[in-house]
Amino acid sequence: MRSYILFLFGLLITVEVGAQQVQLKGLFGDSALLEIDGRQRILKSGDKSPEGVTLLEATTSHARINVAGREQKLTLDAPIAASYTKAGKAEVRLSADSLGHYSIDAWVNGMRVPMMVDTGATSISINYPTARRLGLNLNSARKIPISTANGVTSAYLINLSSVTIGGIKLHNVAATVHSDDFPRVVLLGNSFLSRVDMEQQNGVLVLRARH
Q: Which keywords does this chain's UniProt record carry (predicted)?
């Protein structure tokens, strides 16, 4: 069998539970290289490390772990730092790009979707090609008028079954689907942001789960 090896040095994803820190370092078929509290562990799917971290699944694109009873998906290409506060609440920290935008890889109905934080958007805003890729059913969706830079147009109002960012997962999140390729990048609006605690710390945007 051909062995698929994906390896990436450096910190891409961090999960902290209390004082415990877990970093994804590499993926090797059904195994993952994790750094747990500074110690490197190679685990196969189903293995549990001496520190209590269980590798639930490893693929060529992600690892799914269980830490202190909480499940977390880690990927090699998502520049998100996800952690848990001492109170057990999931936390995501985002750094701004050169234009001051906060970009993030979210998971919508289990599929990865790049998004950009937009506090001025009422809901998550999705272009039509992305909606098709996600398999969203618009047949029974309600049409609503929306205002854009090009004038008033219409969009479909739907509910997304789940939206996951780092360790934060929300269900039944409102979204609007445009009938064209606008916006170019999916906008993470207030239908998600209003349901989490949000603050800025020295240029870093911090999102915290409320439950």
A: Hydrolase, Protease
